[in-house]
Each structure stands twice: as C-alpha cells, then as structure tokens.
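Summarise what follows for lecture notes:
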Amino acid sequence: MCLAETLSMTGFAAYPAFLALLRDAWGISNSEAGFIGGAFFAGYMAAVPVLSSLTDRFDARRIYILSCLLAALGNIGFALAAGGVVTAAFFQALAGAGLGGTYMPGLKALTDRVTGPRQSRCIAFYTSTFGIGTSLSLLLAGWLGGALAWRVVFALLAAGPLAAALIVFLGLRPRPPARLEVKKPILLGWDGVVQERSVRRFIFGYAAHCWELFGLRSWMVAFIVFAYGLNPMGAAPLSATEAAAAINLFGIPVSILGNEAAGRFGRQRTIMWVMAASGGLSWLAGFSAAWVWWVMLALLGLYFISVMSDSAALTAGLVAATPPDRRGSAMAIYSFMGFGAGFVAPLVFGVVLDAAGGKENAAAWGLAFGSLGLGCLAMAAVSFRNRCAWGR
C-alpha cells in the first residue's frame, strides 16, 4: 500500500513544480495561480465524503482502483486542454478527486487488514509515505521538465496512478467491509462521528495541519525560485524542485517519530507543542528569502519538519478514537476538513502575496508564509488555555 500510494501521487506536485512558469506564460496573478493550486484540494474535498464513506459499505480496494483511473484522467486532461485559470483548475480538481479516492480509502483498506498493536505503526508508515509521493512527483516534474514540454510531462506522470491501480488489484485480496448493525444511508454516520468530542478535536487539528502543509507545498518551489533569484552570486547546488523534493523527504521519518513520541509522551502534549513550533517557524522561514541560500533552505526544512511532526499522530489518534464500523465516515470528515483547508490555504497565500507587494517583494513572501501558521498557532493557544484532552 505504501508503494501504491507513492505511485498514485506522481501527478500530485506537477502543478506546484510548474507554477511559476505557467503563471508567467498564462499572464495570471498570484491569486489566480493560488486558486488553481487550491482547486486540486477542492476536488479532493468534493469527492472524499462520498468515496471514503463508501468504504464502510464496499471493499476499499475497489474504490481505490477506480480512483486511480480518475487521477490519471485528470493529469491527461491537464496535459491536453489546460490553457488558463478555468481549464487548469478543472483538471486539477479532477486529479484531486482521484486522490480523494486513494489516500484515505487506501488507509481504510490497510486498517481493515492490519489490526492490533501493529496498526498505529502501520498507519504512521502509510501516512508518512505521502511525503515520498510528493518528493517523487517534484523530482519527476523537475527532471522531465528540463528536457520536455510541460504538457508532455503532465501526460507522462499519469502513468503512476495506473501502476498503483495494478499493484492494488494484484496485491490485495478482496475483503468485504464489516457488517453494520443498523442500516444507514451511504454518507454514513456523520452525525454520530462529529458528536464524539475526541474525534472532533482530531478533525479540527488536522484541518489546521493541512492548511499549513498544503499551502506550503503549493508555493514552496515558487518561493525557492524567488529566493535563488535574490542571491545570484551564491548559486545553490540543487534546483528549486530538487530542493523542495529533498525537504519533503524529511517528513517521512519525522512523521513516524512524531507518532512514536505521541505514544510515549501523550498525544495532547505532543500535538500542542508541535503546532506551536510550526506556527512560529512559518514566519521565520517566510522572511528568510533574502538570506544566503543554505540558511534559507535550512529554515524551510526546519519549518517543514515541524509541520510534519504531528501528521501521523493526528491520523493514528483519529483511527484509535473511532469505532471500526464508523471509521470510513470519520476518515471522510477528517479528509474533507483537512483538504478543504488545503483548498483555501494556497488561495489565501496568493491573495496575501498580491496584497502585500507582489511576487518580487521579500516582505510580501514573509507575510504570505505567516498566514500559513495562523491556524496551528490558534489551535496551540486553545490547547494551552483549555488543556483539552486529545486522547492517548
């Protein structure tokens, strides 16, 4: 499942990798460029309530395979027809809907087949693999983009979801979902899920986490390109896409270790301190553009590490707090809120960037980065004040 997740995401970071190029080629504003980036998560947000909830009624394996085909279609459509804000946003949303039927349904397929003490660790490995998929997507887009036109690159990256569909088809045996005690509608048990206080806290925490994470991932390459341009005399050995890919790889061990720390020191305490750290570091990283390249990349990497440190802890906590027959619905709401924040964050980033002075203004980039950390700072402040129990 980790291998399939990685391959299903080959098109995930293609648009962020080409954001600066397409923004200038199409003559669009930073706000419009951010809207296109956010459209991917809007597609995810629209699809995940249905697709993830359906895993409580149907084998998640079937939904996963069909969604891989949808993701491939979004990438191919972008390659053939994207030519501005409307068409680019549409095909990004289609690709995002494909991810909506692979990421959390893939986790459901995994947790249906792995139970007991191993489950939390398997969840941590699976969710941290998202970073491998992101890094692979960035690297492929950057390397292929150096030799081929961007339309060809988008079309080639559609091969990853097709390979993921084949892996899951061959590698997982069919498994019917647990029978429900009471007949319920397709969008199953949402009221019962959100009434659970412990589940609700993980959902809101994940929304703040995704606001920061996906806003950062959407604009990271463009920020590095801008920062490199301010220091032409001290050229970095890595391209912007290679640097972003390397930074994303830090999220893999950090996410796993964050979950281990949550189990040892308490989930509430770990998540609270991580959110406080990431919210503060967003400002420091954002104002580092004018500094020497290695300091800028180090701060950006440190910021990303803090963002990812509570990722698996939040997801494992949600799974542990939710009854098995409602887990698909809980994951649906969890993803809906998280990727809904992921839709808004890149757009807000672009709006702040435009309003504060534009893409050539270092202070504007710092304020735009600061907007990413506000949610986590608010969650940390509420947790410090109320000492709310996230669960263990």
About this structure: Residues 181-188 have pLDDT under 50 and may be disordered. Residues 197-230 form the longest helix (34 residues). Residues 189 and 195 are 10 Å apart (CA to CA). The chain has one domain: 2-173+188-386.
